[in-house]
Amino acid sequence: MHPLIAKLSLDGDPELLHERRGTTFFKVSDTALKITSGLMAGREGEVLAALGADHYRAHGRYGDGTWLTMRWIDGTSLWDALGPAHRGGDTPAMRRAVLTAATGAAEALAELHAGGWTHGDLQPDHVVFEDDAVRIIDLACAQGPVPVPFYVHRGGLAHTTAPETAAAILDTTDHISTTPEADVWSLAASLFWSWTRIPPTNYRDPQGCRTDLLPDIAAGRQHDLEAVRPLPFPDFEGVMEFGLAHEPEQRPSARSLAELLRVVAP
C-alpha cells in the first residue's frame, strides 16, 4: 500500500488504476487519489478548488511531488458513450443518444469557458457522464482567471491537439496559452475519434511518435469522414466538421456548438 494512503487516513482496499509517466492513480473506496512526481496533481487541486467542483476534496504536497483527492466519479466516458454508434447500430435511439451526449459535452465545455477557463488537454476520457451531470475532468493543464502554480504548457494528447497548437509546439519552445477555440477543436476531435475509433488527422505515419504526428495536425491533414464513418449521419457530421475547422476563427464557440446540436437532434 502506498504510504500516502495511510497518511491521509483513506479507508478501504486501494486499487491501483494507473502508474506511468510520473503519475499514480488509486481508487480507495469512494475516493480517487492522484499522486504526481511534480506539481500537476496539486495544480489540478488548485483549479478544482477555484471552480468549486463538488467532487474536489483536498490536495497537498508529498515529498517532491503533489497529491489530490476527489470523490470517485462513477460515470461513462464520451468514448464509451459513443461505442454503440461506432458499432453501426443505426436506430433512432442511437442517433438521439449520440446527439444528446455530444450536446452535453459541448454544454459542459461552454460552462468551463464561461468561467474564464480553458482545458488545454480535452480528449474522450476527459468527458464523463454521471447520472444527469456531464463533467469535464483532468484539469491539470487548465488555464484561467485565478492564479495557480505555473508550468510550461506544451500541449496535450496529440490526437486531440488543435492545428494552431501543433504549429506552436513545432515553432517555439515557449509556454503555449490555451484558447477556447483550441478546446472546441479538441472536443470535435474527441467526438470524431469516439465515433469512428480513428483520430481525425490522416497521419502519414500513424505509428510515429508525438513529434512525428504534429506536422500533419498543423497542416490539417484530416481523414475523409465518408471513408471512416461507421454509418452516414449528416446532421451530426456537419456540426462536428464545423468544430474541426482548420482556422480557429471559423469554429463555433462551445455554446454555439451545443445549440447547433440541439437544433439537429430529432
From TrEMBL:
Q: Which domain of life is it from?
A: Bacteria
Which parts of the sequence belong to the Protein kinase domain? 1-266
Question: Which InterPro entries does the annotation name?
Answer: Kinase-like_dom_sf, Prot_kinase_dom
The protein's name is Protein kinase domain-containing protein
